[in-house]
Amino acid sequence: MPIIISFFVNVTIQQIYDLGIKMGINSDPRGRIKVEKTLLKLKEESTKLSGEKKKYFDLESLTNPYSDSRILFGDPKQQVKKLMAGIDADATEVLLVDRLNERGGKFDLLIAHHPSGTALASLHEVMDIQIDTFAQKGVPENIAYALMEESMGAVRRRIGPRNHSQALDAAKLLGVPLLALHTPWDNIGDAFMQDLIGQGKFETVGDILKVISEIPEFVEATRGKAGPSIVSGGEKSRVGKIVVSFTGGTNPSKELYMELANAGVGTLIEMHIPEDSVQELRKAHINAIDVGHMAADSIGANLFLDEIEKQGVEAIAASGLIRIRRNASKKSSKF
To answer: What is the spatial distance between Cα 54 and Cα 144, in angstroms, rounded to a whole number?
Structure first.
């Protein structure tokens, strides 16, 4: 049954954040029931913690299953009438908001898709979504788990040395409220693509590429020389079983692609595919479409911002976000 979003009288940072998490859960490829079971299990486990583990336990994780999405800075009760949203937000975007506010911009909030602060440091924790999504496509769950555990460890070690708090520190010094919504937006974009591809009947990879290329975000990306492309296989390649993978933190272990081939997957559609993964996909004879990172991220962002704008909040796009508005006249959503 569709979930109708009630209208806010005065939209706050907390309400924007809560809406993002709600839409993310409703779009989660694992299904809402499984997400809720995961939260319940975590709550039960948290009651048994003691000592240092209890001291450092992230209470936010009991209601928000996405550790890469948080109110990083700002008063949750602050009213928001105008916000800036971008794919990336480092100190540059924080300075941009501050500078525009000096010129009368009146921005109350900066929303970043790619996380910073604790949301970046814990990015690897959301990758377990991919265990279920790959298992749904026929990869044995134990193999998906083992390979994702390796990937999660590698991502944690790669991100560990980075300066997580640079953007956050700038936001605090300049008084710019900062919110990160990563996996929720990815989930929303993933659901959009799953629905679109699921409705089609494709014989060749070229048929899929044509449909994807007609999505407004990808039309704009193509004009900017960053549109979708086939990186494994060719336009005349037979499709086989299709997998759309737009969420789960970041790319999986390249070894998982061979397992997808063993599960009968013929075509993979991803936001971005590293070169070493491309080589592995070619070895496995899996067709692959790299749709383009910024445009792909923009889909989930746009569907979310459409809902925010229905609440009377003005949303200005920046930092790689290709703003496309859909169903602007509608006052309700399945989310």
So the answer is: 30
Phi, psi of 285 (to 5 degrees): 60, 35
Average pLDDT across each block of 10 residues of the chain; the chain has 335 residues. List them in order. Answer: 52 97 95 91 85 83 92 98 96 97 97 84 76 87 85 78 88 97 96 94 97 97 96 96 86 81 93 91 95 97 98 96 80 41
State CA 58 to chain mean position distance.
21
What is the reported pLDDT for 4?
42
Can you tell me which residue has the tokens 């788990």? 145
Length, in residues, of the chain:
335
What is the rounded distance in angstroms from the CA atom of residue 85 to the CA atom of residue 141? 37
Which bin fits 303, alpha (ψ -120 to 50), beta or left (φ > 0)? alpha
Among 44, 119, 111, which residue's Cα sits nearest to residue 82? Answer: 111
> Which residue matches tokens 């929720």?
184
**How distant, in Å, are the alpha carbons of 109, 191, 192, 204 from that of 195?**
31, 6, 5, 19
Give CA–CA dist 70/54, Å, rounded.
20
CA distance 149 to 124: 9
Rounded-to-10 torsion of CA 17, 21, 26, 28: 140
Provide the b/e sequence for 209-226 (b: ≥16 CB within 10 Å): beebbebbbbebbeeeeb
Q: Give the C-alpha separation, 28 to 39, whole Å.
A: 13
